[in-house]
Design goal:
By secondary structure, this protein is α+β, with helices and mostly antiparallel strands. The protein is built from ten helices and eleven strands. It has a six-stranded mixed sheet.
Length: 401
Amino acid sequence: MKPSQLTELEAKTVDQAIDTIRDRVDQLGVSEPVIAHYGLGDNQILVELPGVSDLNRVRDIIQSTSRLEVHEVAGNSAGYASEQEALASLGGTLPPDEELLHGDSQGLVSDGQDHVFLVKRVSIVGGRDFRDASAIGVNDSGRQGVNFVLTNAGGERFYDYTSSHVGSYMAITMGDRVKNVAVIKGAIRDQGQIEGQFSKQQIDDLSLTLRTGALPASIIPIEERTVGASLGADSIRQGVIAAVTGMLAVMVFMLIYYRGSGINADLALFLNLVILLGFMGFSHATLTLPGIAGVILTIGMGVDSNVLIFERIREEMRAGKGPAQAVDQGFAHAWTAIFDTHVTTIVSAAILFMFGTGPVKGFATTLVVGLIANLFTAVFVSRVIFDSHVNHKLVGQKLSI
């Protein structure tokens, strides 16, 4: 291959592997995983999985290049005792369109003996021909398995083969090993079952592998690192300290710069934080480091809204208007700018949530909720407090801002 073609193929393979690993990890229910290119080496992938308890199982699922395929059995359906015996049945020469695969002779679990099967080299269906897979319960014979659904193209191809080979045998292979040999009793289009003496976890892993397809290449672990809970807790604690410190500094600044009206801004800011944390508690969301960053950014956006409103009120008062009229005009003129900035930021955060993964979604979630809460507190809550304060003022009394 030309160097440019080889480089393009390698890049495509890594991208496809990342997509497959992400699909598998997402279905494991891991919160905010990171699966991305690792820039310090060629063809390397970085995988970060917070909160994983069974590391060995996750490693096996990620590394699994197993590709479920269905092949036509060319020789004895019960298999041969050795490769020599299988070759002897062919006169000592293996045809170019056939291959020898080792595997089990009964069911989908090993019977304690290795057997050799002669199958057609090209599969009937396999890999990405599978559209979906789900576990099925234990049947009368004490076996359980997986229901699978093929794609339209794969189903048509499978139907053409099974309808013309009724009574023949087909071998179900995974990872270049024969897992089962079944007789075709009738035409099969796009749905079927794989049964065997599986454990519950094996069934779940098999169905997950079928749903996500096979990896385009084998994966070799280079380095594994486990970050303990103490380090994670320390990072969260430092993030919370940063958020609290930033909020206190902002509140003090608002009190100094806007005097009495700063109390109004601080109340709105505090209520904004209460709404945000209340929503996260109600939805059982996890506050991660990117989420804390979203909270800190929300605090800054909340102060920005109050600054816009307060400066507009100051301009109206410099024009000679009274406190009530200045507050009314200030909120009216600042509303358009506040609404535009919040809507554009919410749209950007929504796009991050839809197309981002892991920590990006956590950041986008807290940012969207915080901005919606800020839009409510900075405009409506602050307006109610201002109106109440102005209504209790004496005629001629100035507004502290």
